[in-house]
Design the sequence.
């Protein structure tokens, strides 16, 4: 798969990144380099390899999975730039 300038422009728009027109060819080339590296990684045979979380054998520490509200929502919301009706208010980002 190859990324052309128009696709790079579209990706930059979707990522909300302003890219000058003269930088689009370089961005497309970087995307192509990344995709080439991913294709190299896909060539590695990992069929009998067990996933690992660390290079040393150790178990992850786990906590009990309990749903809570944190116990102090007023303190958490006091840090928010805009909070309404007990929730964080954020700008709409979906077109």
Sequence:
């Amino acid at each position: 798969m190859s990324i052309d300038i128009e696709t790079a422009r579209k990706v930059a728009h979707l990522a909300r990144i302003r890219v000058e027109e003269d930088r689009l060819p370089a961005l497309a080339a970087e995307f192509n380099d990344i995709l080439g590296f991913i294709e190299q990684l896909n060539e590695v045979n990992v069929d009998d390899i067990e996933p690992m979380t660390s290079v040393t054998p150790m178990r992850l520490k786990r906590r009990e999975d309990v749903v809570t509200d944190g116990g102090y929502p007023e303190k958490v919301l006091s840090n928010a730039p805009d909070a309404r009706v007990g929730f964080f208010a954020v700008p709409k980002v979906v077109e």
About this structure: The radius of gyration is 22 Å. The helical segments are 5-14, 24-42, 73-78. The longest helix spans residues 24-42. Strands lie at 83-84, 87-88.
